[in-house]
């Protein structure tokens, strides 16, 4: 679990790449600059850890591209103490970013292999989510709702209704919607049944699967 000066230097280069791509939130950039992304990846991919690319992590899942992680995190406009639901824990990299931003993180993972691995791994790095759950992201986490924000880290063919209903008034759902290519979409809850929808261009994600495995 080494984090060397070389790794730190590579992270700063990554932060500069993200700035050049339009990420402006200082807290998000600081989080990316601090988290040892190479530790979230298979050692054979270490050389790629600080490239702005997605990489496989097992169970047909990927560790998201840093730009995508930064982009989604920036859209949520997280304040310290915000209660955030993450759909798709995966490697835990996005979870760590949310923790660095001061969020109280509740995260759901449907792949048991990843859930077990990440549940053990995150605390070793000092990142403690409020709750890591092995379950179905499509149904959210009703018992912990409402949330200030919900972030979905896989491509959803449609917007799961429970995720909208579990938002606070003023809360935001950031979700990539679509089949082969997804459109990054943000819903802001304006009232009991009223939502504002905004779109932020195309991204590619692994699919959000129902149920658990």
From TrEMBL:
GO terms for biological process: methylation; protein repair. Gene3D superfamilies: Vaccinia Virus protein VP39. It catalyses: [protein]-L-isoaspartate + S-adenosyl-L-methionine = [protein]-L-isoaspartate alpha-methyl ester + S-adenosyl-L-homocysteine. The active site is at residue 64. Its EC number is 2.1.1.77. It is an enzyme of class 2 (transferase). One of its GO terms (cellular component) is cytoplasm. InterPro entries: PCMT, SAM-dependent_MTases_sf. It is found in: Cytoplasm. One of its GO terms (molecular function) is protein-L-isoaspartate (D-aspartate) O-methyltransferase activity. Keywords: Cytoplasm, Methyltransferase, S-adenosyl-L-methionine, Transferase. Belongs to the methyltransferase superfamily. L-isoaspartyl/D-aspartyl protein methyltransferase family. Catalyzes the methyl esterification of L-isoaspartyl residues in peptides and proteins that result from spontaneous decomposition of normal L-aspartyl and L-asparaginyl residues. It plays a role in the repair and/or degradation of damaged proteins. This is Protein-L-isoaspartate O-methyltransferase. It comes from Algibacter marinivivus. The lineage of its organism: Bacteria, Pseudomonadati, Bacteroidota, Flavobacteriia, Flavobacteriales.
């Amino acid at each position: 679990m080494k984090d060397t000066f070389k790794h730190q230097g590579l992270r700063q280069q990554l932060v500069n790449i993200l700035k050049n791509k339009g990420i402006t939130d200082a807290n998000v950039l600081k989080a990316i600059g601090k988290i040892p992304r190479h530790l979230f990846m298979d050692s054979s991919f270490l050389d790629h850890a600080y490239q702005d690319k997605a990489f496989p992590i097992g169970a047909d899942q990927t560790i998201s591209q840093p730009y995508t992680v930064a982009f989604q995190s920036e859209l949520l406009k997280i304040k310290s103490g915000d209660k955030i639901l993450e759909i798709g824990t995966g490697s835990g990299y996005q979870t760590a970013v949310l923790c660095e931003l001061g969020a109280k993180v509740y995260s759901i993972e449907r792949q048991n292999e990843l859930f077990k691995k990440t549940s053990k791994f995150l605390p070793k790095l000092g990142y403690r989510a409020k709750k890591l759950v092995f379950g179905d992201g499509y149904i959210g986490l009703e018992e912990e709702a409402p949330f200030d924000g919900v972030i979905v880290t896989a491509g959803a063919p449609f917007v799961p209704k429970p995720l909208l209903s579990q938002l606070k008034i003023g809360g935001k759902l950031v979700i990539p919607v679509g089949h082969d290519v997804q459109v990054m979409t943000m819903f802001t809850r304006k009232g009991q049944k009223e939502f504002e929808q905004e779109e932020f261009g195309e991204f590619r994600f692994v699919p959000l699967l129902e149920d658990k495995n």
